[in-house]
Design brief:
mainly alpha, two-stranded antiparallel sheet, 4 strands, two-stranded antiparallel ribbon, 261 residues
Length: 261
């Protein structure tokens, strides 16, 4: 019960602060995205026992920051191949310069971490800058609605396990409850704000829920592989930044790659 109270208080305070910055937009929101991306990167590499202040850790962080910028390394929704190749060469050079103290599997993990987080947070920032406040808020709240619907429907009606080897507490019934609540939430936003046609809103709500749940399962798979319970402890009752934002890391890129926003 005490953990639940802590979780609720942290969620309310953190959520209110985050929504305030989303409303402010501009440099405030971009700065927040950079901050969250940096914390998420720190958690992700720390789970694999890589220090952020090592040369390869710093290199990965620098590449992550480049990916967050709107135009420097991007061509539309694609990363420039020459920039990516230069970063790969840099990481491989570090393995040589360190005389294999930095192993290939470590730099491969760093490459994945930088790309995974960089692409996700880039599109999170892009959504607010290009698509505006209401669409960003609708996507965020629909993602939260998925988590809420999945939790309560799963508790009340959940019987069949969704993916027990990855996340044993998730159920098929809970997953469907999350999908329905996400679709309803997005449709309500569309009707109230006229931000998009209702059919598009229904499709966006469906994609938000499915991709968000996949993002949650992906992070669970990473943690199981690395034998880690939580990505961090920065959010009392919730774990780390990655534990809270895992759904968004898939939702925003998928929406843009499918040209739904």
């Amino acid at each position: 019960m005490e953990r639940l109270k802590t979780r609720i208080v942290t969620g309310l305070v953190g959520g209110a602060g985050f929504l305030l910055v989303v409303y402010a937009g501009g440099l405030w929101y971009t700065a927040l995205v950079f901050f969250l991306a940096t914390l998420a990167y720190y958690e992700l590499i720390r789970m694999n026992r890589i220090r952020i202040m090592d040369w390869h850790g710093i290199s990965g962080l620098f590449f992550l920051w480049l990916l967050l910028l709107p135009d420097l390394v991007w061509k539309g929704t694609m990363i420039r191949g020459d920039v990516l190749f230069l970063f790969i060469l840099l990481l491989l050079f570090i393995t040589v310069a360190s005389k294999n103290r930095v192993e290939y599997k470590q730099v491969a993990y760093l490459l994945f971490s930088s790309l995974y987080l960089g692409i996700a947070f880039h599109f999170m920032n892009e959504t607010r800058l290009v698509n505006g406040f209401w669409i960003t808020i609708a996507v965020l709240i629909s993602t939260w609605a998925t988590d809420t619907g999945a939790y309560f429907v799963g508790k009340a009606r959940g019987k069949r396990k969704l993916w027990p080897s990855i996340s044993p507490n998730k159920t098929v019934e809970g997953s469907l409850g999350g999908v329905i609540l996400s679709i309803v939430t997005m449709a309500v936003f569309a009707m109230v704000t006229n931000m998009m046609p209702i059919p598009q809103a229904l499709l966006v709500g469906l994609v938000v829920s499915i991709s968000g749940q996949l993002g949650d399962l992906m992070e669970s798979a990473i943690k199981r592989t690395l034998d880690v319970k939580d990505s961090g402890t920065i959010l009392p009752g919730h774990g780390g930044i990655l534990d809270r934002l895992d759904s968004w890391l898939v939702v925003f890129p998928v929406l843009h790659l499918l040209h739904l926003l």
